[in-house]
Amino acid sequence: MRYKYFKNAGVDVSALTVGTWGIGGANSAGVGWGEVDTKQSVAAIHAMLDNGINIIDTAPVYGEGHSEIVVGEALKGRRDKVLLATKFGTYINHFSGKSVRDCKYNSIEREVEESLTRLQTDYIDFYMMHWPDVNTPIEETMAALNMLKEKGKIRFIGMSNSPKELIMAAQKYAKIDVIQPPYSMVNQSHKELMQWAETQGISTMSYGSLGAGILTGAIRKCPEYDPKDMRLVFYPFFKEPEFSKIMELLKTLDKIAAEHNRPVAQVSINWSTQKSYVGTALTGVMSPEQANENCATFDWSLSEEEINLIDREIERLNIG
Fold it and tell me: For the chain, which end, N or C, has fewer CB atoms within 10 Å of the first or last residue's CB respectively?
C-alpha cells in the first residue's frame, strides 16, 4: 500500500480510501445506487482494510444513515486501526424528498451524536461539512467544530464541496485539515483548488475517482439506468456527448493497461494518486474481489510518459 502524509492533521493516510456512498443504497425518495447487500459490503470493507487501507469515508445522508450503520458493523474490532471520516450538514427532507443543508451550531451538536451512535464509536477522526450552507455564517459552523474537538468527539476538521473563498474564510476560525472535492480524469474542475490547498498544508480526499465506474473500463455501452440512479442524477458521464468522449479515452487506457497486464481501473487510480495534490482517492467497493483489484494498483506505477499521453488525450477530447 502507498501512504501519504497529511500535513495539518499529522497522520499517514493510505492513498486509497474506502468510499461508502454506494453501499448506502437508496434514500426515502428512491434516489441512490439500488439494492445493496450488507454482508457483502462488510466483506468488501474488510478486504480493503486487509490490503492496508487505513481510512473509511461515509456520511449520514448516504442511504439516510444506512452507510454509517454498515461502516459501524465493519469497524467492530478494528476501530483503533482505522481513520474514520464522516460528514454533517446535509439530510433528506422526508416531506419534499429534497436535500437540505443545515450547518448551524445546534444541528451539528445533534448530528455528531447520531453519527457516533450509528458508527458505534466515541470519536470521529475527520469530521467534514458536506456542503456549504449559505444560511449559516461560517464562524458559527467552525465554532461548533472547535467545540467538538475540545470535547474529544472529533480530531480533525474538513470541508467537502467547498470553494476556495469559503475555505479561506473558515481558516480564520479553525484549522482546516482536509478538503474533499471531486477529481478524476473525467472531472478536473477543482484541480487549482487542490493545488492551492497543498500550499496550505490542507490535504485532499478526492471523490468520484473512477467516474462512478466509467473509468474501470467495465462499461462499454451507454447503460439505461433508472432515472433515480445516482449515476444519472449526480454525474454527467452516462449521457452524450460525454459518454462517447470517455469511450474514446478508454482506448488509450486499454493500451496502457494491456502493456502492464493490469485492469483499466488500476490505470485510472494510479493517474490520480500519483499527483502530489491528491492525498487519498475515494473508491467505492462492492465486493472483496473489487477491493483486491483496486488495492493491487500500488504494486506498480505509471511512467511520466504514460501520464503525459493520457493528459494529451484528455485535452484533445475536451474531457473534464
Answer: N
Handedness of CA 33, 85, 137, 183 (dihedral sign): negative
pTM of the model: 0.93
Q: Does 145 reside within a domain?
A: yes
Q: Residue 56 in contact with residue 17, Cβ under 8 Å?
A: yes
| 245: in domain | no
Give 22's DSSP letter. G
Please state the separation of Cα 239 from the chain's center in Å: 22
Where residue 193 sits, what CATH number does that domain have?
3.20.20.100
User: Is residue 197 one of the residues assigned to a domain?
Assistant: yes
Max CA pair span of the chain: 55
Element (H or E) spanning 288, and its range?
helix 288-295
The answer to the question of residue 247 being in a domain is: no
Whole-number Å distance between alpha carbons of 29 and 103: 22
CA dihedral 194, 186, 45, 292 (to 10 degrees): -110
Domain that holds residue 155: 3-214+268-299
What positions carry a catalytic annotation? 62
Q: Say if CB 171 and CB 162 are below 8 A apart.
A: no
In the chain (320 residues long), the average pLDDT of successive 10-residue segments reads 97 97 76 78 95 97 92 96 97 82 97 97 98 97 98 98 98 98 96 98 96 93 82 86 96 98 98 98 92 96 98 94
* CB-CB neighbours of 134 under 10 Å: 8
